[in-house]
Each structure stands twice: as C-alpha cells, then as structure tokens.
Amino acid sequence: MDKKTSELNYPASAPKKAADNSTREVVESLAKANATENSKIGVDVESVDAINIENETFVERNFTTKEQAYCLKAANAQASFAGRWSAKEAVFKSLGVESRGGGAALKDIEITNDNTGAPVVTVHQLHGDAKAAASKAGVRSVDVSISHSDTQAIAVAVAKF
C-alpha cells in the first residue's frame, strides 16, 4: 500500500515459487546427519496434486484396502494418499530397492497406524521386491514419519539393520 495515497500497489509479476527440491535437500541433509552405520534413510517429497485419486486403477495398484479406507476417511483424502505414497517411496529408498520407474506398483509396502495413530511399517507388511530387499539386507525394522499440507507431502523412513 502506498502510504501517501493509500492506494494498493501490486508487483509487476507474480512471486516466484520456491524450488520443490529445497525442502527435499534440507530434510535429506538432516536425515544423513543423524544416520548411523546400522541404518539407512529414505526421504521423499511429493506434490499433493500429483497424486490422482480419481484414477481407480492407480489407487488399486498402489494402496492396500486398509490404506484406502484410512485415506478416504481423512479430511483431505488426496493429501492423505500423497502422504502414504511419499512414505512408500521413502521406505523403498531406505531399503535400497532399485527403482523400476513410474510404472512400478507400490502396493508391496503397506503403511498402517499404531494405536496412537502414528504411521508404521513392519517387516511382515513388506511384499515382493521390498520384502526381498529387506530380507537380503537383514532389515530388522523400518520407522516412518509422514507430514503433509494441502499442497505438499513429505516422508522420512529409517531402515534399521
């Protein structure tokens, strides 16, 4: 606002959006700083609008029945699905599973909740490539943390050996 005329002034161009990688880089650096030799950390950041929950094939391929029920009850189902997706990606990274690209289903990892509502992944909830990688590496447990807003989801997973 112009203090002399009390007129509203607008910038000539819209503010530039911060690079999405900045969040990922900060979280990855914090995670690596706290890693131990008996653990491996995976981090993933996703845009909520990148997760198309209107595509039933996508949802069925990537989320278990329990995960779908949980996410559909959330105030923002799309953000909840994005958080679960991000957690699955982070778990894959923490297990050292080689990516098979965008066509790979993530149903091999099931993210559930403990009695306090915190997200959990147990080794018996891993299937397929994730289970094979965890067994081969001697993974004892995987801790996961998920957070999301209406626009972005982030997850950190720590596989312990």
Count all strands and give the number: 5
Helix and strand succession?
HEHHHEEHEE
Helix vs. strand class: alpha+beta
Determine the mean pLDDT: 85
Q: Main β-sheet: number of strands, strand sense, barrel status?
A: 3 strands, antiparallel
Assembly state of the chains shown? single chain
Strand content: 15-25%
As laid out across the biggest beta sheet, the strand order is 1-5-4
Helicity level: 25-40%
Low-confidence stretches are none
Query: What would the principal axes of the Cα set say about the shape?
Result: globular
Rg over CA atoms: 19 Å
The number of helical runs is: 5
How far is it from the N-terminal to the C-terminal residue, by CA? 58 Å
Quick structural gist:
With 161 residues, the protein is an alpha+beta fold. It contains five helices and five strands.
Write the topology of this structure:
Elements: H1 21-33, E1 39-47, H2 56-62, H3 65-73, H4 77-95, E2 112-113, E3 119-120, H5 128-137, E4 141-148, E5 152-160
Helix pairs in contact: 3-4
